[in-house]
Amino acid sequence: MNDESKTDASFSAPPSSLRVSFLVCGCGRWMHTQGIEERPGSGGDHWLVRSECCGCRWRVGLEVGAADAHPFIDRLMWTDEARHLLDRMPPYVQALMKPVVDEYVRDRGQRVVTTALFGEARRGGAVRWDADAEARLSRVPASVRTMAKAELEKTSLERGQASVTVALMEELKARYFGMAGQKT
Ligand SMILES: [Zn+2]
């Protein structure tokens, strides 16, 4: 928000630097945020931010760290993944939940509803972990831990589980990380 005051509205060329507020199309108009995909990775969360020019329909996708993405997002947006979770709920639940989640995310000074924030808003706090599941996560190699954590929390939310369990970890390990082998 505070970046907007520094925006030079007179420039007409596309930005040569990524450190500007919002994107400007080659035709001189602002690009509007069209969608956001979550890209969990080992170096922190990344988002693919899709923008479109309303004038000439030029589209661009920009992969950026979640911490640096706000300048490229022009309003409160739900990531594709968070929207997918919402879409799978009964319509009356969606109607009740969406404004609550929007407000929760705004209150935190955020502009993007991610699956993690959606989950927090739903249960009034972060995704909970069983103690043994948490201990086990700490032994997962650092290179895949962030991705594993995001995937586990997402799946836990999708299934409406109260917390991330060791059983879920076993299941996803086989599905996503190809490290199964000790199944009984
Ligand atoms: Zn354009």
Number of domains: 3
Q: Do you know the CATH architecture of the largest domain?
A: Roll
Count of extended strands: 5
Work out the helix count: 6
Shape: globular
Instruction: Give the H and E element order.
Output: EEEEHHEHHHH
Q: Class of the largest domain in CATH?
A: Mainly Beta
Q: Tell me what portion of residues adopts beta-strand conformation.
A: 15-25%
Biggest pleated-sheet summary = 3 strands, antiparallel
- The CATH topology of the largest domain is SH3 type barrels
What are the segments in which pLDDT stays under 50 over at least 5 consecutive residues? 1-20, 180-184
Bound molecules: zinc ion
Q: What value does the Rg take, in angstroms?
A: 19 Å
Strand order of the largest sheet: 1-2-3
**Global structural class:** alpha+beta
What fraction, in percent, of the residue positions are helical? Answer: 25-40%
Instruction: Let me know the average pLDDT.
Output: 80
Task: For the record, give the distance between the C-alpha atoms at the N and C termini, rounded to a whole number.
Answer: 54 Å
Report a brief summary of the structure.
The protein is of the alpha+beta class and 184 residues long. It has helices at 80-87, 91-107, 115-123, 131-137, 142-158, 166-177, and strands at residues 31-39, 46-53, 59-65, 77-78, 112-113.
How does the SSE layout of this entry go?
Elements (H helix, E strand, L loop, with lengths): L30 E9 L6 E8 L5 E7 L11 E2 L1 H8 L3 H17 L4 E2 L1 H9 L7 H7 L4 H17 L7 H12 L7
Parallel strand pairs: 4-5
Antiparallel strand pairs: 1-2, 2-3
Helix pairs in contact: 2-3, 5-6
The chain binds zinc ion (ZN).
